[in-house]
Each structure stands twice: as C-alpha cells, then as structure tokens.
Amino acid sequence: MAGPGVPGAPTARWKRHIMRQLRLRDRTQKALFLELVPAYNHLLEKAELLDTFSKKLQPEPNSVTPTTHQGPWEESGLDSDQVPSLATLRVKWQEEEEGLRLVCGEMAYQVVEKSVALGALESELQELQSRLAALEVRVARLREARAQQAQQVEERRAQNAVQLEAYEALRAHVGLREAALRRLQEEAHDLLERLVQRKAGAAAERNLRNERRERAKQARVSQELKKAAKRTVSISEGPDTLGDGMRERTETLALAPEPEPLENEACEKWKRPFSFKKRRGHSIGGAPEQRYQIIPVCVATRLPTQVQDVLDAHLSEVNAVRFGPNSSLLATGGADRLIHLWNVVGSRLEVNQTLEGAGGSITSVDFDPSGYQVLAATYNQAAQLWKVGEAQSKETLSGHKDKVTAAKFKLTRHQAVTGSRDRTVKEWDLGRAYCSRTINVLSYCNDVVCGDHIIISGHNDQKIRFWDSRGPHCTQVIPVQGRVTSLSLSHDQLHLLSCSRDNTLKVIDLRVSNIRQVFRADGFKCGSDWTKAVFRYLNLSHPWSITIF
Fold it and tell me: Which residues contact 417 (CB under 8 A, 6 or more apart)?
C-alpha cells in the first residue's frame, strides 16, 4: 500500500472507497434477496407437495363406486373422524395454491424491478467512473499548475527580498542626502543672512554718503541762491520762454467723471508756466532747477466724448483692466473668474485668448515686463500666474488668509508682490512659487506698486507706506485724507499717483517724499475701494495724463 507521501496514495484511496461502496451495495441487496429466495423455494416446495396431494386425492375415472382409499392418515393410524373431507381439503389447497401463486407473482415482479434498478445503478456507476476519470485528469493538471505557481511564488519572493534590500539601501542613502541637503540649506540661509546684512550695511553707507553729498550740494545751491538774490532777475510770461525740460514734463489730468473742463483761477494759475531769465555769466542753480521744473501742471480736465468700441467681455462686472508693456495687448478680469486678452488693433479690440482656472473673482491684473506672463489677484485668498498662450493657470501663490486685492510684478518677471485684506504684503519668488518675505501691516492693503528697491502699499487707514525690499522695516509713511484705493508709479519712478476715498488724486514726488499737487474735479466721486487711477502717456506736448476707471 502506498504511504501518504507517495504520489499514488490519493489514487489508492479512491479505489478502496469504490470497493467499499460496491461491497456495501452487494451486502444490502443480498440481504433483500436472502429473505426472498428461501421464501420462494419454500413456496415452490409447498406447491409441489400440494400438487402431489391433489393427484393422490383425485378419483380414478373408471371406478363406479368410490372405494375406500387409504390415505396417509390411515397409514399413520388416524381415525376417519379426525380426517377432513376431501372437498374441504381441495378447496383449502386451492386457496393456498392461489395465494402461493399470487405471492410468487409479486415476488417475480419485485425481482424484475430489482433487476431494472440494478441496471440503472450499474449505468450510473459507469457514468460516475467516467466522471471520476475526467476529474483525475483535471486534478493532475491542477497539481502541475499549482507546482508551477509555487515555483513562481518562490521566485517572486526572492526578487522581492532583493528589491527590499535595494530599497533599504536607497532609503539610507536618501536619508544621508536629506541630512546633507538640510546642512546645505542652513549654510545657504546663514550665507543669505550675512549677504543681506552686508548689503544693508553697504546700503546704509551709500545712503550716508549720498546724504552727505546732498547736504554739500544743497549748501552750494544755497550759497549760489544767496549770491543770485543780490543780483537783478527778470521774470517774463509766455510760451516762448518755457524751457525744454519743462515742455517735455508737462502733465495733463484727464478725469473721466468730470462733466465740464475745470476752469477756475487756480487752474489758470497752473496754466501759466514760469521760467528764470539769467544774466550773462551768472547761473541760477543746476540740480535745483531740474528738481522743480517737473512739477505736474493741471492744464485741463475732460470727459471722453466718443466711444470707440463696446464689447461684451464678461458675464459679470469687470474688476480689473491692464495694458501690456507695448500697449498692443489688453487684459480684463471680472467676477466670472475669467481673464480675457484682447489685441488692440487701431481703435478696436479683437479677441486674443481666454485664461481660465481662477479660483475666485479677479481683483487685479498685471503683465510682467516682457509681456509674456499675466499675474492676477483673486478672492480665493491666492494670486495665480498664467503664461500668454496657455489657457490654464501655470502657478498658484497661496498663503494669504483673506482675499487678495493687488498682485504686481517687480521689475523682473521672476518676482512679484501681493497685498491682501489680511493686513499683509508678501514678496514672491516666482521661479520656486515661494513666499520670500511677509510684511505685517496694521491695516487692509488695497493696492501695491514696486520700484527698483522699494515697495509702496496703499491702505484703509489713509496711509501710504514705503518698504525697502532689502530691509525688514517700513522706511516712510505718507498720510492722506481718505482710504487709498489705488497707486500708480510713473515710468521714470519719480512720481506716485494715489487715488483715495476723499475724492482726490494726489501726485507725490518720490525724490522729496512730499505731496506736490492735489487734483479735484466737480462731479468726481471715488465710489468704491477698487476705483483705479493710472498715468497715461501721450505725445511730447502732453507727455502724460491721468485716467480714472
């Protein structure tokens, strides 16, 4: 007999099982027939005995008178009274014979039924044997497949073990690299702090030298002015005497809400330019003359008289409008979270592109100095960056805790500044989408502009603050008479235009950090915190004007 470890052991088990089932079936059916066959044999014996008795009891056909026939009872010595009559015995034997016949018929019928059942069982047994053979073949195939899969599992386990070892080695290597990176970052941070400190010290020294130079220059100018005051100086009026520098710097104020030109005595006084006539051989200042000839002059205020083009640009209100650096591209942003770019062709606008993906209403739009990127401030506490030509947002500058009201590029396309209602101003490194500096302010910021090394922010507390991008603190604060809604810096970075809720525009000379002129007009109202005023540059006779929208 095969043992449990031998491959033929399962086959011997099912064969023994079939033999046991067959023996059990034989014993069961044999038990049934063992009772039936003796009974049938007994009946046959009784039938033969009855047949014998009936033949003996039948009278001979030639005998007239029945002779006394000595039966078996007489031989045994029984009395004639005790022997039943022949008719009774015949009837009884016939009944028994008929009963035996019926029993034999039933038993024969049962034998036939059992034979039929035995044939059906034999056919079923053959069918089961064929199915068993098919299952044996299938089991053999499955065993082969199982052996192959077990071999594959072992191979995969070996591969996983090798990969796990490689992963652990890489993980340890990455840990070492990260530690080295952190050390390098700390060293870079220390170097950056040292560099900032050195730059701050150099800037302080440079400012000190400039201050000394300015004081010396002012002293020389004051001495020259004292000398010039002792001489006769004639002042004449007329456009012929207007210096070239004064003519090139004449500024025009155009206030859109003004219904009529501003014509009063103050404006008439500003219309009259002034100049100094000096005698031959004497000079009245060099630097001071350059300083004071750039004072803005209010020539006229007027309303636009003709609409050049009307377009349904947005599904909701328009919150921001911005021209590109070359004024051939216009960007508009609205509350529908879309930015539309328009080509300026003559006096008409043609659709260029739609920038999608803004997380909230657009509050501010700005182009970088090259005109290839668009930066927008949104209500979803972030600013987003697009590349002209790509419809989806390239970068999201998140970090503010309230809606962003202003987002402006610095003088390079890799840096930007944002102002928010969360009382912070943030500087961003666009190359890494990283906030390089956060300035905390005591008031909401409505607008920001950027110069070479300066950031100017306008706030709800009626103040304009100046921040040195190389230093951590506010360098100067200029108070105004209303909440500041917008700021605009001239191209030469010498003048700052502010719009405030006291319905005035103020031009600030950044060289002396003083408000040089305040513009008002009848009918002009600064009705919201997002009202904007910008410088607009014209021809040589009127180099720049101011536009409100």
Answer: 407, 408, 410, 425, 426, 427, 428, 448, 450, 455
